[in-house]
Design a protein that fits this description.
It is a single chain. The protein has three domains: about 150 residues, 3-Layer(aba) Sandwich (D-Maltodextrin-Binding Protein, domain 2); about 150 residues, Dipeptide-binding Protein, domain 1 (Alpha-Beta Complex), CATH 3.90.76; about 230 residues, Roll (Dipeptide-binding Protein, domain 3), CATH 3.10.105. The strands form five sheets. Strands 1, 8, 9, 10, 11, 12, 13, 14, 15, 16 and 19 form an eleven-stranded mixed sheet that branches. The chain has a four-stranded antiparallel sheet with strand order 4-5-7-6, covered by helices on one side. The N terminus is likely disordered. The chain has 16 helices and 21 strands. It is an alpha+beta fold.
């Protein structure tokens, strides 16, 4: 069964409804009422190995076809890309490359020097030809993430034994960050083939600190790579136990010490329970890079009036949403760009402040609305997200309580397939959505929302990123800034452009950023070195067991 990798607030309670009616009294206490359920068998305890529990099962381990967090996390630990990030940051650095690329003046040609003395797990030597093979395979095999490189790269060529030349179709200053995507890793040419649909879902032969030992339906085993070219892992291997999407089983297994580390995915109530036990266990909190926002359709009344959009932005109470709905397990955000980036600007807070109801009333009155003639706005969300349903109801209740009836929100939901299809067709006036980045660069948070390939200020976005996101936003200035940011190689100048884009976003309000997720892992007290990256990758090699 393919698991929805991106659902962070699922309710595991539904999975035990088939048991005795007696268990129904535990609906909100599932974490403590699951002791009679069958537990998956964990790997035997080995002090030199680390056991990690998760509810997420990889669909495939083939880097050319994996586009889900859990699979990418395994790839991140077993294979290596040309570039990666300093652990715990968004700072990019060379990995299989030895330096940052040499870029031609027109921004199209990248010359990348490669590391010597590296071997794949099957003994095949790593060199430029192997890297060329890997990137071509990623593009040509047509897997789920193939567009990431296929839309950008014109040619890949080994120009020396340890030198790679990549030519782009158009300038793209964020390209090194794209090359840090775990799936764009080096794979052994002896273990894989190039060809449409030629995938090996149970195989993973890279150059990383771990080797894949076993991939089963309920567990994954990784062994430390004894021949690794760099620093060895702090442990001898990883035993990953998959709890079949049942967060209650994962919760109980961690509480009883059956696993050393629990990561992805516990429900909010279970996280709150474990957070309250800090001292008896370790709580590792990461600042996530998943952004949750309200999209506003500029082609529908009354959202075609900027004053109405600005009023909604002024009247949002993020702190209330975080406290009452998200149980403090998120971080209010005032830009579509997460706080992990230096370019982050809290432009919505600067322009509107938080829960500024007087400003909201002023703007709505200016737009011609009153308690007798309220602005009525539907907020749609996927019916599969209980959290977004509660958020929509919270926004509705807060407006009714604090804005005197001058604006009314009407929450609605539909099943997810229809929801995302309808969004790009302009059916919804507004909708609650989240965004998972493909790579960690400000470009991947601004271009997909503000760019428009075809449209006009009067007619809106007819084709392009903003149309697909459901806002139908069109701005000549936004398009110009995005194009400049993609051609500009100077980091400081790029940051100045990103700041202006965020200010433009706050002024025009096609989207209202609400919160970024916090990421949680939990570890037993004898475990050290657990780190969550902003990308939600999870380096296993830093984890070790200490003597009590």
């Amino acid at each position: 069964m393919i698991i929805n990798q991106f659902s962070y607030f699922r309710q595991s309670l539904k999975k035990i409804s088939k048991y005795l009616i007696l268990f129904s009294i535990c609906f909100t206490l599932a974490v403590g009422c699951n002791s009679s359920q069958t537990q998956e068998t964990t790997n035997p305890v080995d002090n030199n190995r680390i056991s990690v529990g998760t509810t997420l099962k990889p669909r495939t381990l083939d880097p050319a076809d994996n586009y889900e967090l859990v699979g990418l996390n395994i790839i991140y630990n077993v294979a290596e890309s040309l570039y990666t990030y300093e652990i715990g940051t968004t700072e990019i650095k060379p990995l299989l490359a030895t330096e940052m690329p040499e870029i031609s003046e027109d921004g199209l040609r990248y010359i990348i020097p490669l590391r010597h003395g590296v071997s794949f797990h099957d003994g095949t030597a790593f060199n430029a030809e192997a890297m060329e093979f890997s990137l071509k395979r990623f593009i040509e095999n047509g897997g789920k993430p193939s567009f990431l490189l296929g839309d950008v790269i014109e040619t890949v060529e080994a120009t020396g034994e340890y030198e790679l030349k990549i030519t782009l179709k158009q300038p793209f200053a964020a390209f090194p960050a794209l090359l840090a995507f775990p799936g764009a890793c080096a794979v052994s040419p002896e273990a894989y083939k190039i060809g449409e649909g030629e995938f090996s879902p149970s195989t993973l032969v890279g150059t990383g600190k771990y080797q894949l030992n076993q991939f089963k339906s309920d567990s994954i085993s990784l062994n430390a790579n004894e021949n690794y070219w760099g620093d060895k892992p702090a442990n001898q291997g990883i035993n990953m136990q998959i709890y079949s999407s049942n967060s209650a089983n994962l919760f109980n297994s961690f509480k009883t010490g059956a696993v050393d580390v629990a990561y992805q995915t516990l429900d909010p109530q279970q996280i709150e329970n474990l957070r309250s036990s800090e001292g008896k266990l370790q709580v590792i909190e990461g600042s996530g890079t998943v952004v949750n926002y309200l999209v506003l359709n500029l082609q529908q009344e009354p959202l075609d009036q900027p004053e109405v959009r600005q009023a909604i932005a002024a009247g949002i109470n993020r702190a209330l949403i975080n406290e009452r709905v998200l149980k403090g397990q998120a971080e209010p955000i005032y830009s579509l760009l997460p706080t992990a980036f230096e370019a982050y600007q809290p432009s919505f807070e600067t322009l509107y402040r938080e829960a500024n109801t007087s400003k909201a009333k002023e703007l709505l009155t200016k737009a011609g609305y009153s308690a007798e003639n309220p602005a009525i706005i539907e907020i749609w969300h996927s019916s599969g997200s209980i959290t977004r349903g509660i958020v929509a109801e919270t926004i509705k209740a807060y407006a009714a309580s604090e804005l005197g009836g001058i604006i009314q929100f009407v929450p609605n939901s539909v099943e997810s397939a229809s929801f995302f299809s309808n969004l790009s067709q302009g059916i919804y006036p507004s909708a609650l959505v989240d965004w998972y980045p493909d790579f960690l660069d400000p470009d991947n948070y601004l271009q997909p929302f503000l760019s428009c390939g075809q449209g006009s200020p009067s007619g809106g976005c007819e084709s392009g990123a903003a149309q697909s996101r459901g806002s139908f936003y069109y701005s000549d200035r936004a398009n110009q800034l995005i194009e400049q940011s993609r051609q500009e190689q100077d980091a400081d100048k790029r940051q100045t452009i990103f700041i202006e884009l965020q200010e433009l976003l706050a002024q025009d309000v096609p989207y209202i950023p609400l919160w970024q997720t916090k990421d949680y892992a939990f570890a037993q007290n004898e475990i050290q070195g657990v780190v969550i990256n902003p990308s939600q990758t999870f380096p296993f090699w830093t984890i070790k067991r200490i003597d009590n």
